[in-house]
Amino acid sequence: MSKRQRSDRRDGAKRRRHGQKHLYLVLDDWEKGYSIHEIDDHAFENRRSSYGAELKLAPVVRLEAPRGVLIGALGSKVVALWQPTVSKWAVAYDTKTAGLAVGPPHPDALQTMRFVVAAGKKLYAVHEGGVHCLDLEAEEHQWAWTRASSSPLRLPGCDQDGPVEITSTFSLDTGGDGDAGWKRRGEWLLPFLGQGHYDADLDAWVGLHSRRYMCTCDVPEPLADVRSGDDDHDAPAPPQPTWELVSASSLFSADPDPRRGDSAASLVHMGNGEFCVVEALLATGEYVQLRLIRFRFERDRHGRLRASSRHCGALSCIVRKLDPLFSPRAFCM
């Protein structure tokens, strides 16, 4: 594994104090690739308008690479992976050391990836041929690819032409050492757009439900022990978890201009009961307005949850967007 350290004024060991976390943004704002930007807590201080104070971004590192990247985060590292047809390498930026590292080539069995997600201490790539995981803390500090599942997630009707209505939820147990298989949870869907995050204070998963609502969802009950390969329909299915919609209209842009209807939003778990909405609104041409709104969940006098940004802050900036298939990604680490 090759590794190149940065020794400029952005040295990670000097930046970070007492385990303080920062927000990192990955943007497609560079003609030759992608940029990683760091935003610390000071940027949000005294900037608590609902619109957001203007933010000046400067990259901590740029990745000169082709389009078609998938971004994940693991520990203190932001990891960039490209589809096998584009590049067979992964690159990681370590936010603690400000170092760049290049991992081993993709395994031959890794096919077109649908998405990547961190679980435990590994980064999982769900692809058309199954699931592979990338371990950045393998023996002798070498990255390692392993197969987590050779079973692709095939939903009923996906082999047919036209739109497919998905009505079931599936899970994959990554805790074992063998080749895991997908198991059907039941005839219900999790109420999130994008990724859900576990929050210990609420003891629930939290995620975006729509541009106007958040959602808190009870953690689904574990599946009964079923041998891999058994018919999922014969396994006892846990009941649908209960969930609660939380109004979040005050956190999103209220601009009624239909030309700005093309937006993308994601949710970042900041820790200590705090979250951040990252919203990208079409501005003009190749530019988007990026809005960052930090908030906490509070209960009103009736005991209902609400999302409040009164004590957290909001930021806004105009950035370039050059990859039509990429949405801004944000991580707290």
Secondary structure layout:
Blueprint: E1 2-4, H1 12-15, E2 23-30, E3 33-39, E4 53-54, E5 59-64, E6 69-74, E7 77-82, E8 90-94, E9 99-102, E10 113-119, E11 122-127, E12 130-135, E13 144-149, E14 169-172, E15 182-186, E16 197-199, E17 204-208, E18 213-217, E19 243-247, E20 263-271, E21 274-284, E22 287-299, E23 305-308, E24 314-320, E25 329-332
Parallel strand pairs: 4-24
Antiparallel strand pairs: 1-9, 2-3, 2-25, 3-5, 6-7, 7-8, 8-9, 10-11, 11-12, 12-13, 14-15, 16-17, 17-18, 18-19, 20-21, 21-22, 22-23, 22-24
Task: Please provide a written account of the structure.
This protein has 333 residues and is mainly β. It contains one helix and 25 strands. It has one helix spanning 12-15, and strands spanning 2-4, 23-30, 33-39, 53-54, 59-64, 69-74, 77-82, 90-94, 99-102, 113-119, 122-127, 130-135, 144-149, 169-172, 182-186, 197-199, 204-208, 213-217, 243-247, 263-271, 274-284, 287-299, 305-308, 314-320, 329-332. Strands 4, 20, 21, 22, 23 and 24 form a six-stranded mixed beta sheet that branches. It has a five-stranded antiparallel beta sheet with strand order 1-9-8-7-6, with no helix packed on it. The longest helix is centred in the N-terminal third of the chain and has 4 residues, at 12-15. The two termini are 23 Å apart. Mean pLDDT is 79; it is low at 1-17, 48-52, 225-230 and 256-262.
